Every structure is written in C-alpha cells, then in structure tokens.
C-alpha cells in the first residue's frame, strides 16, 4: 500500500496562494484537489496561472463557492488565505465539516476570533496551524542550538526585530492590508506576526508580562471606518528582565532581521522571513572583544557565520515546502500537534495587547 496523500483545498485565490500551490506540489505528501473563489471563472483563472508556472499532472477543480468546496468529501485539509476580517467564519465552518485547517496570518482580528477557530478544530479533532513558513526552516534548529549552548550568546538580555517594505501610494489606496474592515491591524498584523513570533521563539515561547505599542503612522481610507497602522513599534518585557522591541512598516524598504543579544555574544539573522535567494540559509554569531592596554584601545571582531543547506524558495527543502509537508504528515498519520494552536494564540494575544496599548496612550498591557 502506498503512502497517504493529504488532499488540499484552497479557499481563496489570494496571491500568496500561488506560492503555496508550489509548496504543496513540492511537498511529496500532498496535492491540491480544488480551488474555491466567489466564481468558477476566477478559480479557473487562478488554476490556469498556477499550472502555467508550476504544472501538476493531475486535474484541479475550480469551485464557485467556499461552501461547495467545504462540502466535498475528497478534501482532507484547507488552506485559508482569506482576508483576516472575514476569516473566522470560514475557518470554523471548515473545522465543522471535518477539514484540517492551515490559516494565513494574522490568524484573526482578535484573540477571541482565534480561540473560536481553535475551539472548532478541537471539537472536530482536526489540526490547526498558522502559515508561518520560517518556523519550518532547518535554520531554526541551528539557531536554537546556538542560543542554548551557553557560550555563544549566554543569557539573553535584549531582542530586537524589524520587518518592513515600502509600499507606494497606489498600493495604500487599493490593497486590502490598508483596509480597516479586512485587515484592521495593518502592518502590525501583516508583518508584526513574524517579529512577535521570532521574539517568542528566542524566549522559548514564554509570554511577556507587559506589552506596549505605538502607531507611528496610519491611514484612514475613504472605504475604512478606522485608522490602519502603516508603521508600528512595540516593546515587550519579560518576568526575568529580558526586553524586546519590534518595528513594522509599510513605509521603509525591505528589512527582515532579528538580533538576539546576550551576556556573552549575539545572534543576528538578516532574512528570517523570506531567505535571500540561494541554496543556503545562514545567521551570524558575534563574540567581539574589547581590550585596553596603555594607549591601545582595541575592539576585536570575532564573527562566525553559520550556514544551513536549504534552498530559499520553491524547492523541495525550502521552508514553505516544509510547512505544508509537516502539516500533511500530521493529517496523513492521524496525529495532532497542540503546539501550533497554542503558539498562534500567544502571538495573537501579544498583537492584541500591542494594538490596545497603542490605542490607549501607549501604556503597559498584560497580554
């Protein structure tokens, strides 16, 4: 008997789903069965574009409604890149039909939304996972080993992270990420999910005791009822004295870095979200040394780059492929991993606290 294959449905024709069409095709244990949109024509256009770029040998059905896709018995799991503002309803419905669910980030508008999703998945005994690709990179294991070895970084004292890109005015006026109805957290939701998660990773998923946030720039479009963050800064404090800061922006050019500073050194990664193009991913460990001897004041550079053999994208060992392979493995073996809903809830709680702080004068909020 051959190995099981996870049969996927894609609920939406969002652009990011094109990348993950390739991820599923490369996974080796999953395949796309159907794509749903609000019209058959739109779903077929998406499928045709994907087949032209990353062709698969089997046929993929175009479905004209989300309800129709969820009612099918030949789908095991759904990938849901719908806008955050309407996502909860469809994740809950998917779980209620017995479908395992992978959700784009931010998972929900509020923690209550994510809790409703997780509760529905638990009730139906299906897997819930957020689609954070970097969590499935082999680089994360290598970084964990360095952080835990006691000598490379030592005791963590401070964590800083930034994820940003510079959007033009036409993007601001048209993209759903600047709509308060569809993506009310703006750059905090779209980009902050990653910076919050890398901080949680560094802290072994310990929750901060307080969170502060500030909207540095926001827009209110004619079609929106509220201001949407275009630039955001956040701060976290932990019970053991560690502090962390994160910055997210739709107004500064591409950056996606994290620095983890400790008593003996630091770890720096410059492309933790989407690795720079190539066949290796890497990070740096710095253990510089200052000495003073008479008139000689010297700062010696001791910097080591650690590399992991892993393609950056669109390959069988790329992080996005590992994301779908790992999820499909859970589905195919009948196992569930509670880590994923738990870490999604933690991330959402911090995001909510940061936004609440920003909207109430920047004071400390317990997440």
- Major sheet description: 8 strands, mixed
Question: Distance between termini?
Answer: 48 Å
CATH architecture call of the largest domain = 2-Layer Sandwich
Radius of gyration: 21 Å
Order of helices and strands: EHEHEHEHEHEHEHHHEEEEEEEEEHH
What is the assembly state of the chains in this entry?
Answer: single chain
Structural class: alpha/beta
Considering DSSP H and I runs of 4 or more, what fraction of the residues is helical?
Answer: 25-40%
Extract low-pLDDT stretches.
Answer: none
Residue fraction in strands: 25-35%
Q: Identify the strand order in the major beta sheet.
A: 8-9-10-7-11-12-13-16
Q: Count the strands?
A: 16
Classified in CATH, the superfamily of the largest domain is: Dihydrodipicolinate Reductase, domain 2
CATH class of the largest domain: Alpha Beta
Number of domains: 2
CATH topology of the largest domain: Dihydrodipicolinate Reductase, domain 2
| Overall morphology | globular
């Amino acid at each position: 008997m051959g190995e099981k294959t996870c049969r996927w449905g894609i609920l939406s024709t969002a652009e990011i789903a094109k990348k993950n069409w390739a991820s599923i095709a490369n996974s080796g244990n999953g395949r796309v069965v159907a794509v749903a949109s609000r019209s058959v024509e739109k779903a077929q256009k998406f499928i045709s574009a994907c087949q032209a770029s990353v062709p698969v040998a089997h046929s993929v059905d175009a479905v004209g409604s989300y309800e129709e896709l969820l009612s099918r018995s030949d789908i095991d799991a759904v990938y849901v890149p719908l806008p955050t503002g309407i996502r909860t309803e469809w994740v809950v419905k998917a779980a209620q039909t017995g479908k395992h669910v992978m959700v784009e980030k931010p998972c929900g508008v509020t923690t209550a939304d994510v809790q409703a999703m997780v509760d529905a998945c638990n009730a139906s005994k299906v897997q819930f996972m957020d689609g954070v690709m970097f969590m499935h990179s082999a680089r994360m294991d290598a970084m964990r080993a360095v952080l835990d070895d006691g000598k490379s970084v030592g005791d963590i004292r401070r964590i800083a992270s930034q994820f940003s890109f510079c959007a033009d005015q036409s993007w601001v006026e048209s993209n759903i990420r600047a709509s308060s109805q569809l993506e009310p957290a703006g750059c905090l939701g779209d980009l902050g999910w990653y910076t919050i998660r890398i901080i949680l990773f560094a802290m072994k998923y310990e929750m901060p005791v307080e969170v502060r946030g500030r909207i540095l720039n926001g827009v209110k479009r004619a079609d929106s009822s509220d201001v949407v963050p275009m630039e955001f800064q956040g701060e976290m404090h932990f019970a053991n004295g560690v502090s962390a800061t994160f910055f997210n922006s739709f107004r500064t050019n591409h950056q996606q870095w994290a620095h983890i500073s400790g008593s003996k050194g630091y770890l720096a990664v410059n492309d933790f979200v989407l690795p720079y193009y190539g066949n290796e991913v890497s990070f740096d460990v710095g253990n510089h040394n200052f000495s003073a001897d008479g008139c000689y004041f010297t700062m010696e550079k001791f910097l080591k780059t650690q590399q992991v053999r892993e393609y950056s994208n669109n390959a069988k060992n790329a992080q996005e492929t590992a994301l779908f392979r790992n999820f499909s493995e859970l589905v195919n073996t009948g196992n569930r991993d509670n880590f994923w809903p738990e870490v999604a809830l933690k991330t959402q709680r911090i995001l909510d606290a940061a936004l609440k702080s920003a909207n109430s004068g920047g004071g400390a909020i317990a997440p």
